[in-house]
Amino acid sequence: MYVFSTTTLTPLSTTKRWHGRDPTDYYFYEGGPEEGWQYKEEYLFDDETEGKTMDVTNSVDLLMSVIGSVLNLIHLLILTRKEMRSNVVFIIMTGICVSDILVCSASITERYFGNSFGMRKICGTRKQWWMTFIEVLSAAIQKFGKLSAAVLALFMACIRTASVIFPMSRVVGTLMRVRTGLIIISGTFLLCIVWYLDYYKNFEIYKPEKDEEACYAFEDILNRGRLHIFLEGCVVILLTICYLLVTLTLLIALHMVRRKRKTLAAGKFDNTSFLVIMMAVSFFISELLYSTLFILGNRDDPISSPKLFQLGIMLEYVAKILLTFNSIFHCFICFFLSTQYRTVIQRMLCWEKKTTEMVEPVTQTHSEAGRTTKTHTRSSGYLYY
């Protein structure tokens, strides 16, 4: 927005066009400092502030992606141990971990290969074509990983909620099997692959100009971008609502179960349920911001405005940072809430304490019906005959 002075000074003699009331208000473009200023949309921040915000958040997101890739690789190594593969919750969590690794690694590759359009030395070469292809592939992998992780986390929360509400049900018993977790992971990955493959198969890598030295670019030849983004946003909003409903249902179910229990042993806190709740809450927070940015970033939405649209663009990397932090948070949730998880780490690092029980040798003699005497000696926790 441009503010002009309203003083009553007399304009000085000059050949420049004067449209203001102040001697310094000399504008060439219909009374404004730039061409088309009167039609320019009003924003909350200027271009410099927007650019600095994007640069800082982009750098932070890159750092978080590197940290997330390393921690999730360690997380995956722990989850694939034999002791962790007997619980459907950890099986589904393994699928979430794989999705998080894909998102973090693809975010790194997209930044490295995404600047090929500005590299004039390699423009139009086969190398620049492959860099453009990897950029598109990285964007697709990130979208796949985000959606698949969100869906798997919702499945995990639903299974845990059903097991708390209907503990004796045969259906719940089937859901708690390891095979069920593998089927859920395979089905979710397959559906997400088909969904994004149907969209990205219409992308074409081409040269905007006929010049051989022109840089390759990519575009959606069917122009289905708006429809795809709209449907993806609706799915994200639906997942956000489901997270809220399932989490509240699980909390209410746990509260009712704890009230019914009378004995102290039965009243112990359920760490597995709390782990699932924490993961559902973390996904809810990250998906809530992601769905909010979808609404703000849609110019065609009647709720959106130029100011909200600019705010959505500036918070793009903030949402990615929150999603990456969410994946890192899963590692710490498992570590602090799962004794089994900590035991596996101790065993991998050879920190497990060896429990030895020293007992005095005991001799027992049986003389019934002329039986031969057996001597049992217990030492260091092992029984020898």
TrEMBL record:
It holds the Pfam family 7TM_GPCR_Srw. Its main location: membrane. It comes from the Eukaryota. Residues 362-372 have a biased composition (Polar residues). InterPro entries: 7TM_GPCR_serpentine_rcpt_Srw, GPCR_Rhodpsn_7TM. One of its GO terms (cellular component) is membrane. It is found in: Membrane. Residues 362-385 are annotated as: Disordered. The chain crosses the membrane at residues 62-80, 87-108, 147-166, 178-197, 229-254, 274-297, 317-338. SUPFAM superfamilies: Family A G protein-coupled receptor-like. Keywords: Membrane, Transmembrane, Transmembrane helix. GO terms for molecular function: G protein-coupled peptide receptor activity. Residues 71-334 form the G-protein coupled receptors family 1 profile domain. This is G-protein coupled receptors family 1 profile domain-containing protein. It comes from Caenorhabditis remanei (Caenorhabditis vulgaris). The lineage of its organism: Eukaryota, Metazoa, Ecdysozoa, Nematoda, Chromadorea.
